Fold this protein.
Amino acid sequence: MSMDHKETTNQPVLTESEETACQRSFITMNQQMLQSEKQAKGRSLTYCLRTFGCQMNEKQSEVVAGIMDEIGYVRVDTEEADVVIFNTCTVRENANLKVYGRLGYLHNLKKHRPEMKIILFGCMMQEKHVVEKIQKDYKFVDLVFGTHNIFKFAELFYGMQNAEKQMIEIWEGTDQVVEDLPTERNYSFKSGVNVMFGCNNFCSYCIVPYVRGRERSRRPEAIIKEIRRLVADGVTEVMLLGQNVNSYGKTLEEPVSFARLLTQVEEIEGLKRIRFMTSHPKDLSDELIEVMAKSRKICHHLHLPLQSGSSRVLKEMNRRYDKEKYLSLVEKIRTAIPDISLTTDLIVGFPGETEEDFLETMDVVDKADYDTAFTFIYSKRTGTPAAKKEDQVPEDVVKDRFDRLLALVQEKGRKVSSRFLGTTQEVLVEEESKEKGIFTGRTQYNLLVHFPGTADMLGTYVNVKLEECKGFYYLGSLAE
Ligand code: SAH
Ligand code: SF4
Ligand code: F3S
């Protein structure tokens, strides 16, 4: 294996199952190496894994955690560990700054613990300028890889242990989807499931298509097999993940629609709840709405990113819908599924955004009745078409618009989500809050509810009466 910076479109020569077998043999080699290290040190060795960014990153981190656990490292929640691993995000500048901030801290730690290993992977590492900076200014980082070769983690880890200097392996793309690697799930009762990777949409502000590569769907059989296995292992809620799930299956040899996939997932016995994200409004089909309306398992929650309410800005963003189309889609969904909970993503300060454009966004927020909305300040991402635009909006104007939008989103959200006040809802109990004896559950509408409960309820479904609405969460108590 090369120890130098290598950028390659390496198309794997192994078949999927050969690749899995190959990675398993690297796990064994790592295990042997760890054994002798443990003996030399007279203690077990630890790792810390932090994930930045979206649920797809969370999901991929589970694979890395699964492999580290299988090798025999003990996971800890402090960076004072033998191996520190960051799965990075670069969707907005803030995400990058957080990683650089932590690296400063790690550098200090490593001065006192020179044997510590530092590994960076994920979206941020797919950017050339980031890798160059790490090579130049962060020489203490031991291993860097990207988003396309995560399935090679065991091999890369082994290579790093035997390398004399920083090892960097970034692929520009891959067609490969490797199944059946060990994975360590964050929750025992719910799980994300990738249905596709990458994105072909090239919204003009967005870096994701550049760092995640072209859209690739997993075969329906592989998805169903994974979910069956998860259900056998105690999972009752799945979240199907993709940057644009509505275009799922289009590139498969035997094309399948996302709606069809959902009907197959629905048939899995023992599975209780199905969620998915993200839905791009341009591809949301009538078939999907129909399947959702009929389903007994698909949660009545839809995350439908608007980004901007101005048709002019939407065009500049390359979103391929306009304000009217979006609002009529919302109406269609509400007619078919009256109790649907809608949430969205909004960007403020896209280059050239005028006050009038901004007021269009405020107007849609007012009309669409979102339960919540994630509001983002536009962040310039090198390499995207929008970054080249000269009419960037001044910071103070953006800040003012952001504050006004957030105030509206919160005011509307409080009103909209208070529609459940006084009702009894079935919730999946997810965790005990910091306050002992108070548990947090999630309704099918994705609303959180805090209520007094007991530890045996974790991972089960209980009925909770929603007694006090706090905006995006409720306080409640167990129903009789
Ligand atoms: N695939 C999803 C979004 C993934 S990124 C979709 O199309 O809906 C999550 C959110 O980050 C986006 O919806 C968008 O609101 C926000 N985002 C992406 N790029 C951004 C940028 N350059 N600046 C600010 N927000 C951005
Ligand atoms: Fe980015 Fe657009 Fe793809 Fe979403 S659909 S990941 S916003 S390019
Ligand atoms: Fe971030 Fe990559 Fe997700 S850039 S939002 S972690 S796809």
